[in-house]
Design goal:
The structure is a single chain. It is built from eight helices and twelve strands. The strands form two sheets. Strands 1, 2, 3, 4, 5, 6 and 7 form a seven-stranded antiparallel β-sheet that branches. It has a five-stranded antiparallel β-sheet with strand order 9-8-12-11-10. A hairpin with a 2-residue loop joins strand 10 and strand 11. Helix 1 packs antiparallel against helix 7.
């Protein structure tokens, strides 16, 4: 039987297989980790999109309700007498909102009435003012006669009559002939509006800021702490980088007060922009609670796989490789002084077979040496026998010559 030689070595095959297994484990681990991360990212994006649309609906509902209410009040003033301040004061002091649900949506219940001179003359808490308050510097007051019957808002500020932190708003009122007769103004209480918004969010992890038309902070979630000097942070960072309407992912990396913002949404019909994001501490917490255990698990699996491969090498591959080397030494007639040991029954049995083979070869060697010695002895005996035959022939030849002459003489 002819056995063809194969140049592939077991150690090389083991190295290739081990490398493939390790690479496969690493690729699977990376893929699984990326899948978990990507799924978490998608969930975060979905959560942010839902939250940002809920905030938009809340703002639109609140502002639209106020706009409807002011239009109703303006119509009452027109139908009555715009110069009857007592009647206007009585209307402003009345219970304009009776429904508890509407009250929860309405962020402020105090109204002011200013005439053509843009000075507040009637207010809910004080009635008719002895000293009218000038509001001509307000944006809504400037726009009241330019775009009447439209709710205009100002940047967040301290209320003129309330003393609260509010978003001032007002609407110009015109009579049936289109003549400007005054402005109804009010303020959205920032704290109450913030609580209303946070009550509709289904996650405490998300954070938001609402920017006015100048991209200054109008209101924000309670975890966003800032002072007045930081209100224009976003106006400096954003500039004109956002479109005039629509929504989407922010085109730049914005981190404010340890919160990273991802999405924006321009509120349709009102000059406000919502920014949504996550607190980095919460993001790190989610990473530690979701991705880190997965990565740790895959690292453990990879480590166990590596230990398994090392154990397999020590228990199987290395003993077989060593036995292969011993077999090669035996085939070359070299002396074997030590055989590899293994806890494997099969490897031990194979080692015993090698011991038996070595013993058999030693016996064969001894027999061969003895046969060589016997052969030498036989050759020596044959040589002696040949020398004896030669001497015998020489003796007979000499005897023949010695006897031949006398016999011839006798004959």
């Amino acid at each position: 039987m002819i056995i063809k030689s194969n140049n592939n070595k077991l150690s090389k095959d083991y190295f290739i297989i081990s490398s493939i297994i390790i690479i496969a484990v690493v690729i699977i681990s990376i893929w699984q980790t990326w899948s978990v991360y990507n799924s978490q990212k998608i969930l975060k994006d979905v959560r942010l999109e839902k939250s940002i649309h809920r905030i938009e609906n809340e703002i639109q509902t609140t502002f639209s309700y106020v706009s409807y209410l002011i239009k109703f009040m303006g119509q009452q003033i027109i139908n009555d007498d715009p110069n009857d301040l007592e009647n206007i004061a009585e209307m402003l002091r009345g219970k304009l909102i009776l429904n508890a649900k509407d009250k929860s949506k309405f962020a402020w219940e105090m109204f002011d009435w200013s005439r053509e001179d843009k000075k507040i003359i009637v207010t809910t808490p004080y009635g008719i003012m002895k000293e009218p308050i000038d509001i001509s510097y307000r944006y809504y007051a400037k726009m009241a006669d330019v775009e009447p019957w439209v709710l205009h808002t100002d940047p967040a500020d301290i209320g003129v009559t309330s003393g609260q932190w509010i978003i001032p708003a007002g609407m110009g009122i015109t009579d049936s002939n289109g003549k400007f007769i005054g402005t109804i103004s009010m303020g959205f209480n920032v704290a109450k509006l913030t609580r209303n918004i946070e009550s509709i969010l289904d996650s405490e992890d998300v954070s938001f800021v609402i920017l006015d038309k100048d991209n200054k902070i109008a209101l924000s979630s309670e975890d966003v702490k800032y002072d007045q000097n930081q209100r224009d942070y976003f106006s400096k960072e954003l500039g004109n980088k956002l479109p005039e309407n629509g929504s989407g992912r922010l085109p730049l990396n914005l981190i404010f007060q340890n919160i990273k913002y991802y999405y924006y949404n321009k509120i349709d019909g009102y000059p406000y922009t919502i920014l949504m994001g996550y607190n980095k501490a919460i993001f790190n917490k989610e990473f530690n609670e979701t991705l880190l255990p997965g990565i740790t698990g895959y690292l453990i699996i990879g480590t166990l796989s590596l230990l398994l491969l090392i154990t397999l090498r020590n228990l199987v591959v290395k003993p077989i490789t060593d036995l292969s080397k011993i077999a090669d030494q035996i085939s070359k007639g070299k002396k074997i002084t030590r055989l590899p040991r293994s806890n494997s029954k099969e490897i031990t049995a194979l080692s015993k077979q090698f011991v038996n083979a070595i013993r058999f070869m030693n016996k064969e060697k001894i027999l061969k040496q003895k046969a060589e010695q016997d052969k030498q002895k036989i050759e020596e005996l044959v040589k002696i026998h040949q020398e004896y035959d030669k001497e015998k022939e020489e003796f007979l030849r000499d005897m023949y010559h010695m006897l031949n002459t006398p016999l011839n003489a006798v004959i």
